[in-house]
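Cont'd.
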Amino acid sequence: MTLAFACEIVLAGLLLAIATWTITARTAFAAIAVFMVYGLLLSIVWVTLSSVDVALTEAAIGGGVTSMVLLGAASALRGSKGAVASLSLPFKITAGMLCALVAAALATVVFFLPDVAPTLAPVAKENLAASALGNPVAAVLFVFRALDTLLEKVVLLLALVGVWSLSSDRAWGGVPELRLYKSPSPILVFLAQILPPIGIIVGIYMFWAGASQPGGAFQGGTVLAAMWLLTMMARLQDVPSTNAPWLRLLLVVGPMAFLAAGLAGFYFADSFLAYPPSIAKPLIIVVEATLTVSIGVTLALLVAGPPEKVPQQ
Amino acid sequence: MSSAALYGYCGAILVGLGLYGVIARPEILRKILAFNVLGTGVFLLFGVFARRGAEAGLRADPVPQALVITGIVVAFSATALAVALLIRLNKDTGEVVIASDDSAESGKQRVRQ
């Protein structure tokens, strides 16, 4: 057993312990704080599995933004505690046994995996040059399986439409209320002044480098969203009204550009979402740039939640 | 045991843990959190398949990796929508738990506004 493998065993044990803690913690705040640590540990696991793109996404979205949404919910629900109808012990034991069975079935599948793993890596590698991108994961996302990526952007937008439609009739089109901090502390204001210039550069770099190295529109967009949220939480910038035309435009510009490039494929390269080889790279970069902006704005608004204040006329 | 197999078992246990949280924690927020743990377990299994499929000079099969990236974003969208639904439910009824009627009675204090 090598030292690296010993470290991996410790990492896996730690991950399971922290996951158990997240499920069993007494208060919601403790559970979410532990979940953040879980997200970071998990991204280390992704690095050891040689999936750096996934590690970045997990750290940014899985651990970061998800925890932020959950923390917002926990603070909104803080007043209405009680009502903790604890379930009966036989029920918990039955549930535990059922879940152990599911885990055991999955572990059996892992144990009996075929020795020669099925893989699409050679095909992806072979066609990488034709995709004009250097990062195979980005090539899969934006070229080989572009339809998945396009639909996923639409899912993000649909989720936002769903969240907005939960506002009261009176507040429709109004301003979302960021729940995390009602009155910003001086430290938060200081950080919100110092970090954004650095964060915006990091976000743009992550999108730009994503063509040839790990990174991409999602990870970059998430960093941009985080910077915007930071300045809004520190009250350095107002939360925009959800009926502002510029905001709606920023939300749809990425998916629309992607869709337009896809439809143009019918004409120039005889298939939906096919790019003409001569301009493939610039086209993908332009689509990715608009997507980065749209993803950033959508994520930030998903965190901000449904509009709650009546729109100003 | 290879490190891919190690994380495979780890992913299997995470799915079980998450499923237990979804079933056995009555608070909706904790169910959403457990659902996310369940999801990471599934993603980790995908990561194992990607790692095992390393070939042609790539250190992991890019296709499952791209699927996981898409999956993480969709899981986040679902979480954000579920949280918004929960907050609206709480505003309208004061509820923060889901429980069948009889278990809620045995669990006494139900808060209504």
